[in-house]
Specification:
By secondary structure, this protein is of the alpha/beta class. It folds into three domains: 90 residues; 190 residues, Rossmann fold, CATH 3.40.50; 65 residues, no CATH class. Helices cover 47% and strands 15% of the residues. The protein has 16 helices and eight strands. Strand 5, helix 9 and strand 6 form a beta-alpha-beta unit. It is globular. The relative contact order is 0.10. InterPro entries: AB_hydrolase_1, AB_hydrolase_fold. This is Alpha/beta hydrolase. It comes from Leuconostoc mesenteroides. GO terms for molecular function: hydrolase activity.
């Protein structure tokens, strides 16, 4: 269940994300949290608290937990920070040392001037295929770990980092809105004539975009819905402020937009992280350039093009997506073969972004959806 570990809303969401799905009832991890949480004051103390515990757990041979702690430690580091690459490397090394939930195969699928990393989770005698990917800040190993909730379904599961994610981003392959491109490359490489797809967080937009143009996808899941990037800004800004920013963008006033954002980011951990992470993902140098790119990520023009079976998931207290978008998206998927929408409330424990703190709720709904013919 989603817990209130700390007053900082962004820190609290990430603690739930990293800990609760796997370690909520792990006594040693809960003891670690008693030491970690009081130290969390800013991005630097966040890194140190998690990194110190990661080193200790790795030395003890507890690789799965060490991996999680390394991932948490890396979360707020900038790509220019010399500690970032080591934390990411340690995260992945410890992950594969500790992962044993599935038989799996690892691939490097050629893409542009590099490759997209893929982990194929093998289900013996499976007759179907499932693509699984995340969004703005997740790594494919995090999705591989969550796949435990899907174990036993009649699918081989292909988990990958796409452009702007994980190892792909570290090769200079930046985030794009036209997600049908990497999806098509994956389908071609594995010669998949038909597949279902689940996109998590920003992946809730990316999977719908892919479905609009890649018709080898037969079932698609937005886990959770993601209507537009500007929603994530609007939900945290006063109406007059976001309206002014949108007017300045329309007027192409880059200088004023950058001044406004740099001022806001100086005193806002959440906004500072969102914008800096976005600039890294997309490969731009200013908030203005990022917002220009953000305008491409919008469900409105693609909804009539989606003709697959669709599952839409949402949490009523999502920090990034207004819950009202669920009804709107559902009503505008006018050509979908079928649409099922689920809103998780606080009583269910799934009311947060991507059901953080109780992801099994989301995955149970996905399993049921995928099992229906």
């Amino acid at each position: 269940m989603f817990k209130q570990y700390i007053k900082n809303e962004q820190f609290n969401l990430q603690i739930n994300r990293f800990i609760n799905d796997e370690y909520e009832n792990d006594q040693k991890v809960q003891e670690d949290l008693k030491s970690i949480i009081p130290q969390l004051k800013d991005e630097e103390s966040w890194f140190k608290a998690w990194n110190d515990k990661a080193i200790a757990r790795e030395q003890d041979g507890d690789f799965s937990v060490a991996s999680t702690y390394y991932q948490a430690s890396e979360f707020y580091l900038s790509p220019e920070d010399p500690r970032d690459e080591n934390a990411y490397r340690k995260y992945r090394e410890n992950f594969y040392k500790g992962f044993n939930n599935f038989e799996y195969e690892r691939y490097q699928v050629p893409y542009e001037n590099g490759y997209l990393p893929v982990v194929k989770l093998v289900t013996p005698n499976a007759t179907k295929n499932l693509l699984l990917f995340a969004g703005y800040d997740s790594y494919m190993e995090e999705m591989v770990k969550m796949s435990k909730f899907l174990k036993g379904i009649d699918y081989n599961i292909y988990v990958f980092d796409g452009p702007g994610q994980g190892t792909a981003l570290r090769q200079g392959i930046h985030l794009i809105h036209n997600w049908e491109n990497p999806v098509s490359v994956i389908l071609d490489y594995f010669n998949l004539k038909r597949a279902s797809a689940v996109g998590m967080s920003l992946g809730g937009y990316l999977v719908m975009r892919a479905a609009a143009f890649e018709k080898r996808l037969d079932k698609v899941v937005a886990f959770d819905i993601f209507y537009s990037f500007f929603d994530a800004l609007r939900i945290r800004m006063p109406f007059d402020q976001i309206t002014k920013i949108e007017q300045l963008l329309a007027a192409k006033d880059a200088k004023t937009v950058n001044i406004i954002f740099k001022s806001m980011m100086a005193n806002n951990l959440d906004l500072n992280w969102k914008i800096n992470k976005g600039m890294e993902n997309v490969g731009v140098q200013s908030p203005y350039e990022l917002l220009q790119q953000f305008q491409k990520y919008n469900m409105e023009p693609i909804m009539p093009l989606i003709n697959q079976d669709v599952l839409l998931l949402a949490g009523e207290n999502d920090q990034y997506v207004p819950s009202s978008r669920l009804v709107e998206i559902d009503s505008k998927l006018i050509n979908a073969a079928s649409v099922k929408s689920i809103m998780f409330d606080k009583a269910s424990g799934g009311d947060q972004h991507c059901q953080a703190g109780n992801r099994q709720l989301g995955f149970d709904a996905i399993k049921e959806f995928l099992s229906n013919k």
